[in-house]
Amino acid sequence: MEEVCFAQDGIDPDLLPLEELADCAATVLAADGKRILSYGPGAGYTPLRELIGEWFRVHPGRVVITNGSLHALWLLVRLFRPGATVVAEYPVHDRAERVLLDAGAVLASVEVDRDGLVVDQLRQQLTEYLRPSFVYTVPTFHNPTGAVMSEPRRRAIVELVAEHNRIQPDKIAIVENDCYALTRFDGERLPTLFDASGGTTVYLSSFSATVAPGLRVGWLILPDDLAARAGELAGSTSITPVQLGQAAVFELIRRGSFESNLMQLRYALRLRRDSMVAALGAYLPDALWTTPAGGIFMWIELPPGTDSRTLVQKSGVRFAEPGTSFSSTANRVRLSFGAVSPAEIVAGLEALAAAREL
């Protein structure tokens, strides 16, 4: 069997809107090529900033286009100062953890359960131990667990931080990574923390999971003073944004193709999710998992005593890494179904099951 890879954070290349994006790029180059291929403002392609501002009903000056969501996170740590404490969910996405640590942040952890970040643990952290610069959370289709924070918890987190900010001089920000929310294929959309706060939290997202990861187009919505500094910091490190990719995304949305592509993507991801659930039931019936309603990840608990690292070595199947890359739990694995076909999902889980018997 060829190696099956459940490791990628992205989507299957067969699901990318290649022809449409090629036409979008040709269109924007013909219409505005001299500006797009020249140096641009650090905060990003102005028409896309204006469009995202309309989506979120904020002034476009608060919108900063980034080179994906991890670049946005990198900018934030530097805006809030290196060496600052950041409260992050546990388990945590390994790449986000590396970005935070490499940028000089000190991490404190709050656990995630099936309903998202555990508010009582956050309250204890804020009350007894520390004053972080910000709380970092992925409330919808969390990476790696796939959990969705419940609406009551969303409101409780916003209220808890607001309460602390009323009585403490050092303000705490909430940073919401909402990269996967638009992939929802079951159930109803929940209000974002940005919604619940009346637009006062920091919001970051990306088109990597909804258009194409290689375009590297993400965005931040920030308070006015931070947005201006973020644009300057982005410009000081990259000189200019990659305006062609940002302009192609803008054109995809402007012509109405973003929504139709999103509908096709959701359908394809649901098929892959269903294939993974069925294959888990057939080949790993003693494992535990929660079926996600969107996103691209499943967080699998194997029977006690199972070492996911050994399975990786024996099976020819690659996870993003075993569960130990995200937490201290050796019998957990993150499986990504976004970048593999239904047939590959079945073959990969069959190989995992066979490796357990070796």
Supply the key terms.
Aspartate Aminotransferase, domain 2, eight-stranded mixed β-sheet, globular, 358 residues, single chain, 12 helices, Aspartate Aminotransferase, domain 1, 45% helix, alpha/beta, two-stranded parallel ribbon
Structure description:
The chain has 12 helices and 12 strands. The chain is globular, with a radius of gyration of 21 Å. It has 2 domains: 4-15 and 259-356, Alpha-Beta Complex (Aspartate Aminotransferase, domain 1), CATH 3.90.1150.10; 18-255, Type I PLP-dependent aspartate aminotransferase-like (Major domain) (Aspartate Aminotransferase, domain 2), CATH 3.40.640.10. The longest helix has 27 residues, at 257-283. Helix 4 (94-102) links the parallel strand 3 (85-90) and strand 4 (106-113). Helix 3 runs parallel beside helix 4, helix 5 (119-129) packs parallel to helix 6 (151-167) and helix 10 packs parallel to helix 12. Strands 2-9-8-7-6-3-4-5 form an 8-stranded mixed β-sheet, with helices on both faces. A two-stranded parallel ribbon has the order 1-11. The chain has a two-stranded antiparallel sheet with strand order 10-12. It has helices at residues 18-36, 46-56, 69-80, 94-102, 119-129, 151-167, 193-196, 224-238, 243-254, 257-283, 308-315, 342-356, and strands at 4-6, 63-66, 85-90, 106-113, 116-117, 134-137, 173-177, 202-206, 218-221, 297-301, 317-319, 332-336. With 358 residues, the protein is α/β, with parallel strands linked by helices.
